[in-house]
Amino acid sequence: MYNLKIDTYFKIIFTISLFSIIAAFFIEYVLGHQPCNLCLMQRIPYGLSIFLIILNYLLKKNEQFMILLLILIFSFSFLISFYHFGIEQGFFRESSVCGLNSTSEIISKEEILKQLNEKNISCKDVTFRVFGLSLTTFNIVTSLFLSILLISMFRNYDKFKKQS
């Protein structure tokens, strides 16, 4: 790992997270590709990391704890992405999470008909690819990279702090 300051690593993670969120919204709202429920879940770690990094800059306390939280967040992101990739490839069956439309109660028959007419996006259907790879594949690589980077930051925290 390069000998950069801890703030530089946080800026790299923040930039990757921000780019990921902006790209996901661009693909959904500008290009018109509807995400499945697991795709939506895969955005959560990036949003949380942005929030935690901003919080870290504001508070400047418990930096090691923030790194540990980010390790957990991106490990979760890796697991969800790996599971989603497994569904896309047919290794795993779709779970009930993939078919949920909303958590609100359906009150009238009109709402039932409306939900039946809506097209549900299956977790195994890839609607958008870059270089022939699904965004889930990119998320696996990104989450794994960030997890390894954060683990290295945590393990070498004292060494990084001396450089700051």
Q: If you had to describe this structure to a student in words, what would you say it looks like?
A:
This protein has 164 residues and is mostly helical. The chain has a single domain (6-99, 106-163), classed as Bromodomain-like (Up-down Bundle). It is 68% helix and 2% strand. It contains six helices and two strands. The protein has a two-stranded antiparallel ribbon with strand order 1-2. A hairpin with a 2-residue loop joins strand 1 and strand 2. Helix 1 (6-30) packs antiparallel against helix 2 (37-59), helix 2 (37-59) packs antiparallel against helix 3 and helix 3 (63-89) runs antiparallel to helix 5 (135-155). The longest helix has 27 residues, at 63-89. The protein is elongated, with a radius of gyration of 19 Å. The mean pLDDT is 81.
